[in-house]
Amino acid sequence: MREKSLQKIFPAFGTVNSITLYGGAGPGIAEHIKKRSLELHRRFSFFEPGSDIFRINEQAGGRPVPVHPDTLFVLSHALNYGRETKGAFDITAGAAGRLWQNALRSAKIPSEADITTCSSLNGLNDLILDEADQTAFLRRTGQQIDLGGIAKGYAADEAVRILKKYKVHNALINFGGTVIAIGREQKIGIQNPYQKNGESMGDITVKNKAVVTSGTYERGFFLDGRRYHHIIDPHTGWPTDSGLLSVTLTGGCAMELDALATALCVMGEERGLPVLDRHGIEAVFIRDSGEIRLTRGLQEKFFLKSK
Ligand code: ADP
Ligand code: MG
User: Fold this and answer.
1) Cβ(46) to ligand 1 under 6 A?
2) Among 146, 175, 191, which is best to mutate for testing ligand 1, by the most ligand atoms less than 8 A from CB?
3) Could you tell me which residues are beta bridge partners of residue 191?
4) What are the tens digits of pLDDT across the range 181-201?
């Protein structure tokens, strides 16, 4: 007999999100997770007027803005990941991020002057969080926060918290490639960077773990043999060129993996591995050459798809 399962799919965080519940869990639980995710989307959105992030950006150089505890929580963790990765993960690089997002859309490289101006606005030390007053403040006019590299991870962790509350034992959360396998062992596909979306190049088997992929093959274009994409090296203001096509991380906290997967795309394997070690995170790297490298804990858990 086929097992009973229920799936809910909804758009948020600029991507497609799915919740799959096994073993007869009711639709009310999936609806609860969706509602919570949309609430987080509205708090963290870069574009939606009235979101916490929108208001912080609007008041940059002006005054502190009252924000929800969810927002303060993610901002303060994001700053920590930023410091730990020596600025490779930088949520204050929003101006440079936006410049490139527009550039990618029109497949045109921005001017050097614009790149320099935007990246001069990066500054982890310019984001001031006040836990007592529950406010956030960007010191300089024009500075912009972008939680695109971490928001889905936090939302996925929140989904797990809700599932635990309802005692759902087997489920799969997939928020735009930020995946959490709950309960039984599950096979998670790793996107083949050379194929269209949804085609995996191999699987890893995980149990009660999150799996997050950041890829420099996404949302980009090629010009004169170079790839331009959506992960920006905050130190140069240009899309990263660290030798990695994609980074897949697995561990216990999706928010942490989300931030660090983005950071690793910037830092590259060599500089990034000590950070992963400190957090007990395992990784699959796909290099620009197509070569795959696994950390020790995944040697027995990765299966290359046969062609
Ligand atoms: P995806 O959103 O494609 O799953 P990521 O988690 O790597 O992938 O997030 C990429 C997003 O993070 C970008 O679209 C941008 O909003 C933001 N971003 C880009 N570069 C950085 C960076 N160096 N640090 C923090 N956020 C970044
Ligand atoms: Mg990320």
Assistant:
1) no
2) 146
3) 200
4) 999 999 999 999 888 788 999
